[in-house]
Amino acid sequence: MNIEQLENIVEVAKSGSLTKAAEQAHVTLSAISQSISLLESELGIRLFQRARGQGAVPTPEGQVIIRIANEALMKINELKKEAQFYSNTISGQLRIATIPGPMHLLIDVISSFKRDFPGVKIEIMEKGPKEILDLIKQDKIDIGLIALSESLLQQQRNVTFQKLLEGKLVVGVNQQSPLRWEQALTPEKLINQTFVLYDDEHIRNFMTQFIEVYGEADILFISNNTQAIHNAVKEGIGVTIGIDYSFKEDGLHIIPLALEIPSIERFYYGWVHASDKHISQVAKRFLNRLKSEL
């Protein structure tokens, strides 16, 4: 038994004709017929009923064998594709868009992936969640990495979100701040602080709800410039709000503290893709690496 014989019986079953199968395989009719006869002899069963003018019809037992043969061929094809990606000959383009906070989580993964697959050209950009979703739907990026709350996750349509990390909102304070010694910050301790905030839908929603319940807050500025926010907190000008894993890069200048607020939502960092779009093999390989290293 060999792969060619399996391909032949699958093609004959599909076309219903030895002649058409021979044409498709670019071989002679006698070669197809002999191939099938040898396989039937090896298996000890008849795979097709052959009748002049009626083509080739699978026998009941032949239908079972042909179905298994088709599954085996699909697995062999999958094996070949998988093996190809373990070779340094893999090439192509990988376009990634991510929200700014967790960029540091990607650096080591991108570095090792690029080292193993130097033929892959990687383009990575920082965007807001809405921009990333738009780029995914427009097929302008291969992978979108965003954070979604439980409520926003339920609102998404025509996209699939795969979770990588679970996080929660925390307060980022300066290392010299007296707040840093608190186990958790209550609204009463937080309301008198000056805020420097990242321009993000999750944070805006949180602050809107916070103000509605606890009163006006002193917001110095809202920006999508993460370095400006980092510097403002580092210099003690204000505190910031963010998802806990966004602060793992900086354990010295900015200290993340838990929020002691009832019913605070959980957040999930993960990758998103359009439900009706094919995920490239290069993107799949990168995502497998990302999941294994986070």
From TrEMBL:
Q: Which Gene3D superfamilies match?
A: 3.40.190.290, Winged helix-like DNA-binding domain superfamily/Winged helix DNA-binding domain
The keyword DNA-binding is assigned to this record: yes
Coiled-coil stretches noted in the UniProt entry, renumbered to this chain: none
How is this protein named in the record?
LysR family transcriptional regulator
Q: Which UniProt keywords apply?
A: DNA-binding, Transcription, Transcription regulation
- Among its keywords, does the record have Transcription regulation? yes
Recorded superkingdom: Bacteria
| PROSITE patterns on file | HTH_LYSR
The record lists the organism as Paenibacillus alvei (Bacillus alvei)
The entry assigns this protein to a family as follows:
Belongs to the LysR transcriptional regulatory family.
Pfam families for this protein: HTH_1, LysR_substrate
**CDD domains assigned:** PBP2_LTTR_substrate (cd05466)
What InterPro entries does UniProt report for this protein, alphabetically?
HTH-type_LysR_regulators, LysR_HTH_N, LysR_subst-bd, WH-like_DNA-bd_sf, WH_DNA-bd_sf
Q: Which residues form the HTH lysR-type domain?
A: 1-59
